[in-house]
Amino acid sequence: MTLPLRDELKGLKPYGAPQLDVPIKLNTNENPFSPPADLISAIAADISQIAGELNRYPDRDAIELRTQLAQYLNEESQVSLDANQVWAANGSNEIMLQLLQAYGGPNRKALTFTPTYSMYEEYARDTNTEFIAIDRLKDFSVNEDLVTTSLKEHSPSVVFFASPNNPTGTAMDLSIIQNVAPNFPSTIFVVDEAYAEFRRPGVASALTLLPALPNLVVTRTMSKAFAFAGVRLGYLAASEALINDLMLVRLPYHLSSVTQSVAKTALRFAAELQADLDVIRRERDDLLVWLGENGFTAAESDANFVLFGTFTDRHAAWQALVDHGILIREVGPTGWLRVTIGTPTEMQSFKTALLRVKAEMS
Ligand code: PMP
After folding, report:
1. What is the pLDDT of residue 162?
2. pLDDT < 70: residue spans in the chain
3. Which residues are CB-neighbours of 184 under 8 A, at least 6 positions away?
4. pTM for this one?
5. What is the pLDDT of residue 18?
6. CA–CA separation, 216 vs 203, rounded Å?
7. Which of 23, 28, 256, 259 is least crowded, fewest Cβ atoms below 10 Å from its Cβ?
8. Is ligand 1 within 6 A of the CB of residue 169?
9. How far apart are CA 308 and CA 351, in angstroms?
């Protein structure tokens, strides 16, 4: 018997990094700090309170949560959004899939600049949208000329920019969006800011451009900065009109009562979680210096990970680190590896192991 799988899915493997059982996991850009004890207690109280109402469907439009997400963004990026300009779903993965369900589809294109987050291609495939990948410049950035030329040539209905970009860590020069987006009013510009909270001081968020650009969407997630990857809460900020379009494609009651409730609780702890972000940023900046001092090349990073190299045989280097109990990610351009910033102790172990691996391989 042959199951009638779509032709374009035949022979493919499901997305995912290897989940190996090693002591130090620095491979999926998670926050290494578990939620603080007072947040854990607040979540437990929340869940016991809503448990008695789980026979009912959740608030379909998640109004309270969206109001609180807007307040968080307003403080975090000095903007002034309200609930109608924010939309939430199960991870920013679902947010971006919804964007292509609404704006992609047959005879339409989604475009991005690679190397970048590999899921963009999957959202396109799953929505029957043609996917166009354009190479980034040598330093992993894009410029106005490259973006304009690519959009003129391909006329995509959606363009994805990850900023900071995964796996390179590169933040985007926002003047590109500011100058180019008005020239392509029928293209949705998505700036995926999954890692925005890790950006260096002085690096602005694309949220600041929203008032001037009706075709701009900025996506965020609680998976990274909020140490909440297990909850699956992603969100976006955009015009109210765009959010009304997304409501056409969202599944009814897509965001569970449990998710909505614990996300609201975690938002109350934003200031407390900030201290952990400071530690991660400091470790990242230290690692960049350390890599340079020890003969490695590393890409500048505004995220909670660093792309470094270069290795003649990166797979051998990756495997040797696994043998030393450290799992990082074999991703990005040939010869490079990506390491997620862990706790200070984990980073010390990583550095020690990397020097050993370097000596073993030379
Ligand atoms: N965007 C980028 C650039 C990412 O790296 C990731 C996760 N690794 C996501 C979006 C998705 O995050 P989530 O679905 O957990 O919000």
Report:
1. 98
2. none
3. 151, 215
4. 0.97
5. 75
6. 18
7. 23
8. no
9. 13
